[in-house]
Specification:
By secondary structure, the chain is an all-alpha fold. The chain has helices spanning 8-13, 15-21, 26-47, 55-67, 72-83, 94-115, 121-141, 143-148, 162-166, 170-194, 203-225, 239-257.
């Protein structure tokens, strides 16, 4: 399958990003597609055991990403994070989980700053936060699917282990639900922070990022509203719900983000667990 400049790859694999991509200028969209393609192929290699049909194509894709200003450090961090799922070892606590979220999603936010040609130090902090928020949402949504792949992303200190997943009684449902809600509360903190970074995004691309943020955040909201339903079926935002979110995001953009009112400085405490990683806030 051709992976460079393949617009269908977003539609087939992420309907949320597909909706957001509709609002990107064509030049930026091309870069975003290639970044997404790289991330998707790395993920499929580990999750689905799909190897590259043509290894030279992934090399070409990496060189293309480097031409956007994306360094080897970010490409290697993402590959390292994705590879950690292959021989999965549970995280001891939220700090370790956040470092994983940085590697598989925070660095994607950093790659996006390159695609959008943003060269502001603080903007990168907020981009990391958005990636972390989205990954925490993914983990919350997919907690049962991941367990079936022998992965429990809820940290060890939650005292949730395989025995609890195997005996899904009411008490254990409540335990899992409580801890997933804790992750979603944390995700919302990072979503809220990331809104302050929209002011650094070129105006023509701002609404796309806002749409992606709000659609992803809506997944978490739906998980919270539907109780333990996420333990038994996939929770997703329907087409009708996405249309409503898009309209609301357009109004929000016109009121708050043409001349952004979200101008708080980045909270360095959000990156305390990330020290030593590229482009994090060390203040």
């Amino acid at each position: 399958m051709e992976i460079i400049d393949n617009k269908n790859i977003i539609y087939k694999n992420s309907k949320s990003f597909f909706w957001a991509s509709k609002f990107l200028p064509s030049k930026i969209l091309e870069k975003v597609i290639n970044i997404y393609s790289f991330c998707r192929t790395q993920d499929d290699r580990v999750d689905e055991g799909i190897d590259f049909e043509d290894p030279s194509e992934i090399i070409k894709l990496q060189e293309l990403l480097k031409s956007y200003g994306i360094g080897d450090n970010l490409l290697n961090e993402l590959i390292s994070g994705v590879n950690s799922d292959k021989d999965f070892i549970r995280y001891e606590n939220n700090s370790e989980l956040l470092r994983y979220c940085y590697k598989v999603a925070g660095v994607v936010g950093l790659m996006m700053t390159n695609a959008l040609e943003i060269d502001n130090k603080e903007a990168k902090y907020f981009a990391i936060d958005l990636g972390i928020a989205m990954q925490l949402t993914n983990i919350s949504r997919d907690v049962m699917q991941d367990y079936k792949k022998n992965r429990i992303y809820l940290p060890k200190n939650t005292r949730i282990d395989s025995s609890i997943f195997e005996d899904m009684n009411k008490k254990n449902e409540v335990k899992i639900n409580k801890n997933v809600r804790g992750l979603l509360i944390k995700a919302d903190i990072y979503y809220k922070s990331s809104l302050n970074g929209i002011r650094y995004i070129p105006v023509k691309s701002r609404i796309a990022i806002l749409v992606a943020l709000r659609i992803y955040q809506a997944i978490g909201l739906k998980i919270k509203k539907t109780g333990t339903k996420f333990l038994y079926e996939n929770i997703y935002v329907t087409r009708a719900e996405k249309i409503i979110i898009v309209f609301k995001a357009i109004i929000e953009f016109l009121i708050f983000f043409i001349f952004p009112v979200h101008r708080e400085k980045h909270n360095a405490k959000l990156h305390e667990s990330l020290l030593g990683l590229s482009d994090v806030n060390t203040r």
